[in-house]
Amino acid sequence: MTSPEPDTTMPSRPGEAAAGALFDAIATEHATIYGYGVVSAHSVPEVNYLVSSAIAEHRARREAAIALAQQQGIDAAVPAAGYQMPLEVDDPTDATNLAVRMEEDAAVAWRAVVEQATEQSVRAFGVTALTECAVTAARWSVIREDRAVTVAFPGGSE
Predict the structure, then answer these.
(1) In terms of pLDDT, which residue wins out, 120 or 1?
(2) What pLDDT, in 10s, does the model give residues 134-149?
(3) Cα 131 from Cα 137, distance rounded (Å)
(4) Contact between residue 39 and residue 99 where contact means Cβ atoms under 8 Å apart
């Protein structure tokens, strides 16, 4: 009996640090876009503008990151059929908490790109992405009425 052939249709995460970080950031963008569907379903109408803006931002970033990966000769991560959310979402407060969490998680992924990138164009893309995630997280934090809406070093534990 022979073992089944491995699935070669799904790209594997590259082993090289810079390529792996970009692959992971694209995977995070896929998950964030999916998660914003959950946020949208549970948000109050007054924040639809922010949900729409965030989804559009992440879709545009994902597509640009995929193009950047292809330019670098890296196979991009593909979206999963579904994702497990990092917290249960049953109401608008949970939806806002999820949005903040996703933006923070995306900032972590893009910070890794910045830290690992060996090419200036990739590093610059990562800095822009990290900044945009931090700004969107701050916008959600205002809605959540956090006392502090920004952090000194987005994407880090400092």
Answers:
(1) 120
(2) 999 999 999 999 998 8
(3) 10
(4) yes
Q: How far apart are CA 155 and CA 49, in angstroms?
A: 24
Task: Give tens-digit pLDDT for 106-123.
Answer: 999 999 999 999 999 999
Distance, C-alpha 1 to centroid of its chain: 42
Token pair of 129, please? 């992405």
- Kindly report the CATH number that applies to the domain delimited by 17-78+108-143: 1.20.1260.10
- The two structure tokens encoding residue 108: 């972590």
Question: How many angstroms separate the Cα of 67 from the Cα of each of 72, 75, 76, 116, 140?
Answer: 9, 10, 9, 18, 28
User: Domain limits of the chain?
Assistant: 17-78+108-143
